[in-house]
Design a protein that fits this description.
two-stranded antiparallel ribbon; elongated; three-stranded antiparallel sheet; 57% helix; 168 residues; 5 helices; mainly alpha
């Protein structure tokens, strides 16, 4: 007796890649602007001063943690732990009630993936059909240039993103 295998059509080739279609529409435009505001907040946050301190600062070397102008030291760790537990409970409750809103519009991973990295991918390699054609073709100068440029920009963004969060 033979057992049917899932995805048996492409077992010799190996991995099946997914090429997302380039989104468009009114809701996507709103989502794009919400993402821009959240990214601006993320990168402006270390430069905003409140009570003479950065808005958010995690300085492990000097054992100084600042949240919204309040300074926490290692002696205050129990307050920090309690605040983090409350924050985690809030996130879980918020996700249960409005999970699609969080995951689709406000989650940092989604914002970076869909509004930064995916847009670079569309800019360099084109939409889903163009990406399929590029991946199917043999390695040549065009493919090496496009893939190399894309991955260079990905690495550049990945390594430069945390720079604003270094202690000032």
């Amino acid at each position: 007796m033979k057992v049917a295998q899932k995805n048996s059509t492409n077992t010799t080739k190996g991995r099946n890649f997914i090429y997302p279609k380039k989104p468009s529409g009114k809701l996507y435009t709103y989502r794009k602007w919400v993402s821009y505001v959240l990214l601006l907040f993320l990168f402006a946050c270390p430069f905003v001063k409140l009570n003479g301190e950065q808005l958010v600062l995690l300085n492990f070397i000097e054992r100084k943690f600042v949240f919204f102008g309040l300074i926490f030291t290692p002696q205050d760790f129990y307050l920090f732990a309690l605040a983090m537990l409350i924050f985690i409970i809030f996130i879980v409750c918020f996700t249960v009630v409005l999970g699609r809103l969080w995951c689709g519009w406000a989650c940092p991973q989604t914002i970076f993936m869909e509004m930064v990295f995916r847009r670079i991918e569309y800019w360099i390699e084109g939409d889903a059909n163009q990406q399929k054609k590029l991946d199917a073709q043999e390695w040549n100068n065009e493919k090496v240039f496009k893939k190399g440029t894309k991955h260079f920009l990905f690495l550049l963004i990945s390594f430069s993103s945390p720079i604003p969060f270094w202690p000032i």
